[in-house]
Design goal:
It is built from eleven helices and seven strands. The protein has about 350 residues and is an alpha/beta fold. InterPro entries: CRAL-TRIO_dom, CRAL-TRIO_dom_sf, CRAL/TRIO_N_dom, CRAL/TRIO_N_dom_sf, PI_Transfer_CRAL-TRIO.
């Protein structure tokens, strides 16, 4: 069966492919990528290639270029080698952290508090964000690819806004973490935040900002929304839950150090969330210079491309204020996948 086209009011035209067609495109991307160093082979699994294809509406050339760029970025930035001691200072105030609970769909939850920003270093903020993304991905259950962001706007003001950090955040998350965001909840943002969203929206792709929802405590639907997504007993009080413990940097540091002990398994057995299928055979003797693209692929990527239907669960949040907003803007101050 050939691909069909579905029109979506939020995402534009989306390719609907059979499983056979999807696998054929995955195989085509793998062939174009070629052989990569062993340490990067995890990111060439069927699941990883599929996320890149969905992020580029199943366009093989664009997905190949996106994946090639990500492999180059990972080889240079080495996100999997970031350790707690390097980012502990950025984490001190609890501006971003992985919660000790998941949502009802089994997705890890990253809590973000822009008002707790404690750094003016764009480099430091982005590096800590990448650390948090890698940690959330490390803790994905085998049947889940995506995560949830819970953004608490308590105490947020204009001084916490940084367009520069937001732009860099959008670049890293959209280009190097495709299809990792399932849902982002902006909890009680102030009215002045909406104009900022309008300002940064051009940095984002439709699939990204359509996954982000405004939620207000005074909205009658809010309680049901949170109950549908989370176990209220485990949910933090700041989001309407019953957990009043709060963030403890000492306990969190212990959790992160324990997680870091899992990191070597990524290179010995493959990362379960990524290696949903057989990895492509690789050779460490070859470098990324061997990864070749068709000479026309760059030219075809000059513009943004619409995103495909997400394979993750994306519950809709109904609110009078329900509008799309850049997830990274919520972390404009704390350095917060194509998400």
């Amino acid at each position: 069966m050939s691909a069909g086209i579905k029109k979506s009011p939020s995402n534009g035209s989306e390719n609907i492919l059979t499983c056979e067609d999807q696998q054929a495109k995955i195989n085509e991307v793998r062939k174009l990528i070629g052989t990569v160093p062993d340490k990067l082979s995890t990111y060439c699994s069927d699941a990883s290639i599929s996320r890149h294809l969905r992020a580029r509406n199943w366009n093989v050339k664009k997905a190949t270029k996106m994946l090639k760029d990500t492999l180059k970025w990972r080889s240079e930035y080495k996100p999997e080698e970031i350790r707690w001691e390097e980012v502990a200072r950025e984490a001190d105030t609890g501006k971003i952290y992985r919660s000790n609970y998941m949502d009802k769909h089994g997705r890890p939850v990253l809590v973000m508090r822009p008002s707790c920003q404690n750094s003016k270093s764009t480099k430091g903020q982005i590096r800590y964000l990448v650390y948090c993304m890698e940690n959330a991905i490390l803790n994905l259950p085998p049947d889940q690819e995506q995560m949830v962001w819970l953004i608490d706007f308590q105490g947020f003001n204009l001084s916490h806004i940084s367009v520069k950090v937001t732009r860099e955040t959008a670049h890293v998350l959209q280009d190097h973490y495709p299809e990792r965001l399932g849902l982002a909840i902006l909890y009680n943002p102030p009215k002045f935040f909406e104009p900022f969203y309008t300002l940064v929206k051009p940095f984002l792709e439709p699939k990204t900002y359509n996954k982000v929802k405004f939620v207000y405590p005074e909205d009658l639907n809010t309680k049901k929304i949170m109950e549908d997504l989370f176990d209220i007993e485990k949910l933090e009080a700041a989001f309407g839950g019953n957990d009043t413990a709060g963030f403890d940097i000492t306990k969190y540091a212990e959790r992160m150090k324990e997680d870091e002990k899992k990191m070597p398994t990524i290179w010995t057995t493959g990362n379960p969330p990524l290696a949903a299928s057989q990895p492509v055979p690789t050779s460490a003797a070859l470098s990324l210079d061997s990864v070749k693209l068709d000479s026309n692929s760059d030219a075809s990527d000059n513009g943004k491309t619409g995103s495909s239907v997400s394979h993750g669960i994306e519950p809709e949040i109904v609110s009078d204020h329900n509008m799309a907003v850049a997830p990274s803007t919520t972390n404009a101050t704390d350095g917060v996948d194509r998400v």
